[in-house]
């Protein structure tokens, strides 16, 4: 049975393939994205909507960036914050706060028409005062994982993929019985 990764984001598809060690088949499917701070709520809605269109087992993925000083904002809304003010201006949201701690969360939703499961990974870190690095995508330039001196965007793909929240989520997905669909 074929398993699809419903995404329009080629960077997420590339990272998933690198993490899993083989090419995963992506399919661009346009689904409405509910607006919520919590990634898991967004994932569930996207999974059901994508399955309705494709009628095949699939995964969807979403990632949020949660600022502790802002009670988790922007979370899953980070995509819209990036579009509005860019990665270079996001650190300014925390200028009046001493606490720059954040965590990044990726959730993968799996749905085959009957079974729905979520696999999540989180990485603790902090928001740096200014964007750094040329690699990666999205907000990688402003997130520095705990215990590291570089932002995700300053790391090589291999470095980032060795510790990222996406890796943690995909490894959980790979360990379960649904992974057999991808082989």
* Average pLDDT level: 91
Give the terminus-to-terminus CA distance. Answer: 9 Å
Number of strands: 7
Sheet with most strands:
7 strands, mixed
Rounded to an integer, what's the Rg over CA atoms? 16 Å
Could you describe the 3D structure shown?
The chain has 183 residues and is of the alpha/beta class. Helices cover 29% and strands 23% of the residues. It is built from 5 helices and 7 strands; from the N terminus they run βαβαββαβββαα. It has helices spanning 10-20, 39-54, 78-85, 157-163, 165-175, and strands spanning 4-6, 26-27, 58-67, 74-75, 101-111, 116-127, 143-145. Strands 1, 2, 3, 4, 5, 6 and 7 form a 7-stranded mixed sheet that branches. Strand 1, helix 1 (10-20) and strand 2 (26-27) form a beta-alpha-beta unit. Helix 1 (10-20) packs across helix 5 (165-175).
Question: What keyword list fits this structure?
Answer:
183 residues
Which SSEs are present, and which pair or pack?
Elements: E1 4-6, H1 10-20, E2 26-27, H2 39-54, E3 58-67, E4 74-75, H3 78-85, E5 101-111, E6 116-127, E7 143-145, H4 157-163, H5 165-175
Parallel strand pairs: 1-2, 1-3
Antiparallel strand pairs: 3-4, 3-5, 5-6, 6-7
In short:
The protein has 183 residues and is α/β, with parallel strands linked by helices. The protein has helices spanning 10-20, 39-54, 78-85, 157-163, 165-175, and strands spanning 4-6, 26-27, 58-67, 74-75, 101-111, 116-127, 143-145.
């Amino acid at each position: 049975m074929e398993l699809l990764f419903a995404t329009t984001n080629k960077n997420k598809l590339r990272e998933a393939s690198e993490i899993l060690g083989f090419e995963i088949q992506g399919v661009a499917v346009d689904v409405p994205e509910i607006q919520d701070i919590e990634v898991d709520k967004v994932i569930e809605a996207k999974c059901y909507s994508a399955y309705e269109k494709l009628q095949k087992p699939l995964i969807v993925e979403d990632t949020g960036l949660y600022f502790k000083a802002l009670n988790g904002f922007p979370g899953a809304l980070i995509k819209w914050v990036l579009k509005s003010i860019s990665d270079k201006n996001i650190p300014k949201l925390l200028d009046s706060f001493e606490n720059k701690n954040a965590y990044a969360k990726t959730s993968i939703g799996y749905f085959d028409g009957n079974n729905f499961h979520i696999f999540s990974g989180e990485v603790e870190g902090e928001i740096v005062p200014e964007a750094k690095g040329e690699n990666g995508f999205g907000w990688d330039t402003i997130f520095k994982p705990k215990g590291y001196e570089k932002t995700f965007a300053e790391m090589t793909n291999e470095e980032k993929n060795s510790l990222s929240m996406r890796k943690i989520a995909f490894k959980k997905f790979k360990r379960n019985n649904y992974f057999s669909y991808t082989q």
